[in-house]
Amino acid sequence: MILFDLKCENGHVFETWFKDSAAFRSQSDQGIISCPNCASTSVSKALMAPNVSLAKSEKKTKSHDDLAKVQKFLAQAQKTVEENFDYVGKDFAQEARKIHYGESDKTNIYGEASEVDAKELKEEGVAFSQIPWKPKADA
Q: CA–CA separation, 139 vs 132, rounded Å?
């Protein structure tokens, strides 16, 4: 099995596993590979970094450092959202639609949405992003 980074005609990059390069070519020629973001079947291989094997101790340290960086980045993203966006709670999907369809002023919002709501928003073309949210610790 081989993991390829693929890129659709709209610039979305995603990963997919294939038996080998021939399997990728065959599926690509048949148009059965589609972008998970926009469903485009016009995909090609994206540039990929080589997989360099590290010693076990280096891998553990690198993984720990990478995890710490990701956690720090997500905490900063959450702080920025909380300070600069309006919280709409469980009404997120409804409010996002109002903004998208011009029924409300364009403003930055955040809140909660079910998986079903998120899927429907995506299908309607409503622009939004999902980030992992860390609950605030009780004081």
A: 21
